[in-house]
């Protein structure tokens, strides 16, 4: 495996870019090419350490070339803005290629000259030997991947809760429908019973009336 080190603004998104590359086996974010040993994130953000936020990666040259990594590096940021990327301002956000051997140095220089033809303003990217790399605190490592997994888990749980609520609502609706049907059936049965009773009473009354009439006729 071969090492490569790049600085292109906030190291979170730069790391995510290289994590997705086939042939890159390992990435870590940290601080390099400064004047303070083993600095903290707070110290680097003060702009007083001279360190750049950078990504150190290990890659297999048989699967991805250094030139391909350089192309990704240039595509990730605006190399013409000195000590700034977007809203991130400070020397720690500078653009830099830190080479680990002469071959990387030569390829970086040639790549920068080629890239310059795309811009009117001069490219401010520094090309220097890779200094001591100090890994950033653990909470900064794989930050965007961890954030994505957290929100994915959160959304998944919310969806499950919503599905459970929908199932409960459906069950409640079914229970209400069943109760309503039972009530309707009971009401129908009661009505039928009442009707039958009324019919029986009417029949009995009619029979009684007929008997009375017969009796009256016999008397006459």
How would you portray this structure in words?
There is one protein chain. With 220 residues, this protein is α+β, with helices and mostly antiparallel strands. The protein is built from 5 helices and 8 strands; from the N terminus they run βαβαβαβββαββα. The chain has helices at 11-19, 41-45, 66-76, 102-116, 143-219, and strands at 2-8, 24-32, 52-59, 84-85, 88-89, 95-99, 126-129, 133-135. A hairpin with a 2-residue loop joins β4 and β5 (88-89). α3 (66-76) packs across α4. The longest helix is centred in the C-terminal third of the chain and has 77 residues, at 143-219. The relative contact order is 0.13.
Helix content: 40-55%
Q: What do the pLDDT scores average to?
A: 81
Order of helices and strands: EHEHEHEEEHEEH
Give the strand order of the largest sheet, numbering strands 1, 2, ... along the chain: 7-6-1-3-2-8
Rg over CA atoms, rounded to whole Å, is: 41 Å
Structural class: alpha+beta
Instruction: Write down how many β-strands occur, each being a DSSP E stretch of 2 or more residues.
Output: 8
Strand fraction equals 15-25%
Report the end-to-end length measured between terminal Cα atoms.
131 Å
Shape verdict: elongated
Biggest beta-sheet profile: 6 strands, mixed
Uncertain spans:
192-220
Total DSSP helices: 5
């Amino acid at each position: 495996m071969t090492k490569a080190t790049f600085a292109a603004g906030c190291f979170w998104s730069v790391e995510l870019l290289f994590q997705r590359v086939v042939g890159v086996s390992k990435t870590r974010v940290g601080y390099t090419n400064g004047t303070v040993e083993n600095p903290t994130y707070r110290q680097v953000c003060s702009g007083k350490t001279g360190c750049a936020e950078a990504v150190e990666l290990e890659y297999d040259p048989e699967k991805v070339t250094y030139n391909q990594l350089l192309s990704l590096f240039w595509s990730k940021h605006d190399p013409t803005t000195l000590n700034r990327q977007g809203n991130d301002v400070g020397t720690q956000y500078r653009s830099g290629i830190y080479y680990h051997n002469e071959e990387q140095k030569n390829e970086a220089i040639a790549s920068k000259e080629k890239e310059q033809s795309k811009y009117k303003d001069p490219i401010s990217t520094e090309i220097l030997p890779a200094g001591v790399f100090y890994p950033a605190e653990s909470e900064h490592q794989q930050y965007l991947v961890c954030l994505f997994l957290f929100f994915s888990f959160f959304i998944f749980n919310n969806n499950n809760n919503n599905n459970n609520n929908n199932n409960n609502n459906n069950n409640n609706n079914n229970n209400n429908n069943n109760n309503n049907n039972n009530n309707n059936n009971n009401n129908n049965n009661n009505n039928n019973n009442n009707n039958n009773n009324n019919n029986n009473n009417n029949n009995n009354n009619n029979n009684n009336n007929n008997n009375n009439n017969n009796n009256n006729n016999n008397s006459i």
